[in-house]
Amino acid sequence: MSDDHVYLSLAEGHEDDTRWAYGTGFEDPLHGVDTTVPEGVDTGRLAAQCVALADDALVSAQRLAEWTTRAPELEEEVALANIGLDLLGQARLLYARAGRTDGTGRDEDAYAYFRDPAEFRNVRLAELPNGDFAFSLVRLLVLSSWRLAHFGELSSHPDPVLAAVAAKGVKELTYHRQYAAEWVVRLGDGTPESHRRTRRAVEQVAPYFGELFTAYDARDEVAAVLRQVTEAAGLPMPVYRPLPGSGRAGEHTEHLAPLLAELQGVARAHPGATW
Amino acid sequence: MTTTHSAETPEAPEVSGTSGAPGTSGAHGTSGAPAASGAPLPEQALQEHFDATIARDQRVEPRDWMPDGYRRTLVRQIAQHAHSEIIGMQPEGEWITRAPSLRRKAILFAKVQDEAGHGLYLYSAAETLGADRADLTERLIEGRQKYSSIFNYPTPTFADVGVIGWFVDGAAICNQVPLCRSSYGPYARAMVRICKEESFHQRQGYELLMTMMRGTGAQRAMVQDAVDRWWWPSLMMFGPPDGDSPNSAASMAWKIKRHSNDELRQRFVDMTVPQAEKLGVTLPDPDLRWNAERGRHDFGTPDWSELKRVIGGDGPCNAERTERRRSAHEEGAWVREAATAHAAKQERRARAQEGAVA
Amino acid sequence: MSDTHGTRGTGTDGTHGTDGTRSTEGAPKRDWPLYEVFVRGKRGLNHVHVGSLHAADDTMALTHARDLYTRRNEGVSIWVVRSEHIAASTRDEKDPFFAPSADKVYRHPTFYDIPDDVPHI
Fold first, then answer.
1. Is the sign of the CA dihedral B240, B246, B251, B252 positive or negative?
2. B254 near B54, Cβ under 8 Å?
3. For residue A84, how far is the Cα from the chain centroid?
4. Which residues form a coiled coil (chain A) (predicted)?
5. How many Cα atoms are found within 13 Å in the side-chain-facing hemisphere of A129?
6. What does the pLDDT look like over C3-27, one tens digit per residue?
7. B 214-243 near C (Cβ less than 8 A)
8. Which residues neighbour B341 within 8 Å (Cβ) at sequence distance 6 or greater?
9. CA–CA gap between residue B102 and residue C4 (Å, rounded)
10. Which domains does chain A have, with CATH numbers?
11. pTM (2 decimals)?
């Protein structure tokens, strides 16, 4: 195989193999983190916060998974799955933290599979159907901008676990926001059709901003991102018109129940099963 | 690292503006590039050089002269392989949103994503031969190019996810590990990468089945049912028997393929039987038994008429699979066009700005 | 020498007409142009050609390359090149580009607990 030297230098040229699936480069985000809840932290509030952020991530990951085999190009399949997997990872860590702090000792699957729609605390923006690629990407831009701002603040949270999860999430969300922003600019600027679709997506997303900001007011950060992106995309800034109600209070659209029925169906059909 | 520009076909002239290309690569094109003698290399000399490369077990690289048949065979095989990865996302992809635990959801999501990646590596290899991905996609959705027949079977239960990992990815590994030594360099290199990544696919499938076999009676029944449904189609994945495989001989001679269909099928059976015993499932073949004389397993004959039917388009899910791929491609057209248009506008803007500065 | 692809004189240039949104009409439908991807596996190594992908522009090509060729925290630097142009990911982008895949432990075959006595797995 001496004629394969170029590839060998990639595949076998060094021993530690950190670039491959079976490599050693995996990091436990909680490695070395003390998981006891520090004095003075309100555990009820901490658990509720973890569940809400986990629900946002799980429901978003579920919607991103629905793009699988339906994305506009194969490279986009890979990208959307990367983002979905990041969010799913965040959800799992946050549910686990909630179970440790709310006194129930529940595991991640108890939260994901055995709560009813009214018990979910995700924002309604996350549960809306995917719509077209423009809607999905404008939504991703808004959600990742808000979550990035929030996680930036949470990375200095007094709970070391939430802080560690947030610090790791900041890197992921920076990339999600960049991916979404690049696409929204392309679609807004691209063709008359893509411009029309993206403009409509911005209008559809706007009413759902309000409930994001009740949990963490990142109005200025999100507005700054949107201003930059809409300007580059040649789109109008969305008008801020909050809808009544909030997913954070368990008030959801009609779209959450079918999403959860699909997510939870197999798990609930086999009580006592192990997977 | 120097980039070189290979012509799309051996007949095509070198693309202009390739002054950066290294002079060491040799002018293998039959274009106008004169050989040392001043005359173009005759086809026979090129053929002899090519044959010698194959005989020495060296790799053929994109810019090398190669016989048209070799190029055509490779494009067909690599494209079919790529299509199989992409269509193969569908049967399991159905279960990402339904996976019964978050851990399984993450594993399956990552696995199906890998398949998209593997399809891309393979399309990339096909494109080094002058094929065009848009054209290959057209051929797939118009039914003019095939993909592996196995993906035309349905996945009614979550146990199918495990059995696909165990059987289908196991069969794929039997097929693909030898392809890492395929005579065509880019294909062999893509296969190295794919095999490294796929080692996790088979293991996750087997581990899921082991977990389910330790679970409820209903789960064990689900696993056995999936094994019963997937065993024979998995054996068919290796293609028709050697005596009935028209393209195999040429592919073997060119070292595009390294082992015959029947030899690979035998390897798969020998590998899988002891794994089934450990798992506690029965493989649905009354003729399956150890043959001490051969040192291998004897096994029954798959229903080759079924394979013909499924390849011919009459499998349980053929229409559904192709239709999904078609609709994703067509519904995504406006997105791809928007990105192209934006890139063109950006380039014009950059040029206008340069002009303004100058 | 790397196995870079043939340059395509048509198609990519065909989109640079006076009306960028319409110029493909009548012509065969084309993908986004092809980019070659070079990854530096780690410090001390050269960038190595790892394959190709399609993207509408350099930015998208880098994003796709990160997603496709570094899903498993391989690589500290990527180059993409279309024709004569080379674009490189910068050091500053290293964290968001590469860090997120570090925890995907389920991509690791040894993550799956298979008894030693199961053969060939």
1. positive
2. yes
3. 7
4. none
5. 5
6. 444 433 333 333 333 333 333 333 3
7. none
8. A189, A190, A191, A194, C15, C20, C21
9. 40
10. 3-10+41-269 (1.20.1260.10)
11. 0.84
